[in-house]
Design brief:
Distance between the termini: 27 Å
Largest sheet: 5 strands, mixed
Shape: globular
Helix content: 40-55%
Structural class: alpha/beta
Number of strands: 5
């Protein structure tokens, strides 16, 4: 990660001074702890969403600040605002050869990751360019979650760690895969629909639902290209067609912004979501754009709309 240097909002000295003061004075008000944690997590998410404009030294100081704040709040580990998307952003940003970022980010990941958001780390493990030291750290964090991992989440982990189904792998990976092989913890899709939708919207996890061309031929993908250039449209249409989807396009735009529309009608609405996630992954792979799935009540079950 080589973020662009920018004079940003965080100040190392003031943050550390505040953190020391917080540790020195006992805080008995649980609400005050939660408010501080929520504020710190908002700052973290804002920085991660704009990581290209954040100086790496300032980002490391922010990670240290957030680390001290959440360590002072016993409820932070179960904070549902720390979803798979936030964990994924943090996992990607701290998966670097920068030692300070990797250590500070790794501690936060280890503290904040749980069975509902571990998908954020799993998605990072799909990256072929992942720094090897960062990969080892992430595998270790994921390994601490295997005893409570949902079966569908375990399936994503298997796909990320052993996509070719190889019998030869390093001992730690083999140990983790063996631990989840007979996982019987139910499914995230049944326990938390919101967290499941967040997880499948991540590009690596979405790729596990691409499936075969024969399976995809029932779905029609309408590309609403807006002002996108023709070369981009053609490249995406080709990638989708190669995967078996029927593809058409127009120049319509959506006042609500970009997104991938999928139907929530009928008994197969779960399949529609998974295929929308697959399309989102193909969009990311083919034209390097992030467009997240969003539910629509009036869309036919076998239609998916990609809006730019």
């Amino acid at each position: 990660m080589q973020p662009v240097r920018k004079q940003s909002v965080f100040c190392l000295a003031s943050r550390i001074a505040l953190s020391i003061a917080l540790l020195a004075v006992p805080v008995n008000d649980a609400r005050a702890d939660k408010d501080l944690t929520d504020s710190a997590l908002r700052q973290l998410r804002d920085a991660l969403e704009n990581i290209g404009n954040v100086d790496s030294i300032q980002f490391a100081s922010l990670l240290q600040y957030v680390r001290i704040i959440v360590a002072n709040d016993e409820t932070a580990v179960d904070n549902r605002k720390v979803d798979g998307r936030l964990i994924n952003l943090l996992s990607n940003a701290s998966s670097t050869n920068d030692y300070a970022l990797r250590i500070q980010g790794g501690w936060l990941l280890g503290y904040l990751t749980n069975r509902y958001n571990v998908c954020g780390i799993i998605d990072t493990l799909f990256r072929p360019d992942l720094d090897l030291k960062a990969r080892r750290n992430l595998i270790g964090i994921v390994g601490s979650q295997t005893d409570q991992m949902y079966s569908d989440v375990a399936g994503w982990l298997k796909a990320a760690l052993n996509p070719q189904g190889s019998q030869v792998m390093d001992p730690k990976t083999a140990e983790i895969l063996a631990a989840v092989e007979s996982n019987n913890e139910g499914e995230l899709s049944n326990d938390s629909d919101t967290d499941f939708k967040t997880c499948v919207s991540l590009p690596g996890i979405g790729s596990t639902y691409i499936g075969s061309a024969q399976e995809n031929e029932r779905f029609r993908v309408a590309i609403h290209a807006g002002k996108a250039d023709q070369a981009t449209i053609d490249k995406l249409a080709k990638a989708l067609t190669e995967r078996g989807f029927k593809v058409g396009y127009d120049r319509e735009t959506d006042t609500f912004g970009s997104g991938i529309d999928y139907s929530i009608q009928g008994g197969d609405k779960g399949l529609a979501l998974r295929k929308a996630a697959a399309v989102a992954s193909i969009v990311g792979q083919s034209i390097d754009a992030r467009v997240a799935p969003r539910p629509q009540s009036k869309l036919p079950l076998d239609e998916i709309g990609v809006w730019f």
